[in-house]
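Field reference: sequence -> structure
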Amino acid sequence: MDILKPNAVIGTNSWGGTVYGNLVRGNYVNNDVIKEAMDTAQKYDLKIYDAARDYGLGKAQKMLGEFGTENIVISAKFTPTSSYKPGVVIRSFEKDLLDFKRDYIDIYWLHLPIDIERYLNEIIGLYKAGKIHHIGVSNFNLEECILAKKVLERENIKLYGVQNHYSIISREWEDNGLVEWCHKNDISFWAWAVLEEGMLVDPRAKSKKTIMKTIYKKQQKKLSELYDVMIDIAEKHSISVSQVAIAFCCNKDIVPVCGCRKPNQVEELAQAATVTLTEDEIKSLETVADKSGAKIMGADMFRFMVK
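Structure field:
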């Protein structure tokens, strides 16, 4: 696995306790199964795990530390909630290290574009101390990414990546030029929620009701034609409908971050990253997705938090 050119990343936002698993994700998966999924990921050379302090209601990072982080790559975040206060990044980072039982983090992201220069400068200090190996930004628009790149380049540090929401039905970051800018500048673009909280999976499969599915039920009705196209493509490539959504990202040179709690989910992610879709298939998916007008997560859904 090349950390600079990953095929896919395992997200940990779906990890957590019984209540969180059942209410938000539809079912609880115990730690033994998640550990088995991590073992499966090693076989497929999927070694990057994306985490944040609040993922799994605060349990995800601690779970990684308990399972062992010797053979994995950790992607973690600092999430600013207010204007800059000196030392706040360092204090948060030290708590992260305790969670991971590590003395460094491979990739560290500024999670929101708040006081960009001052927060990044503190992250740069950690980078220079050898405690961070790569720096990225998340939920930034193009203008904010350009600023972050300039701040890092003053210290001869390359912007590693941009991590934003992207899926078949949420491609605004392509439309406004951010994805193209990343590719031109050799900056990795990571996509979270590529399955739109379970909305871009096979509609024929029985699944438990969750808070997310209840919230987005009206939007799901708009996706019937898209489902038909996804099912057709899935059958042609002998893959699942959800793998079509993942492969769509990979074929755009976009790194999918997918929550994997079970071994079969890891296998699906790894296999989807190897699928080559035709230009006609990609165009068909885009055309029908745009026609649907469906919006689940929204490309910049956390903008309201930016102060």
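Note: The first strand starts at residue 9 and ends at 11.
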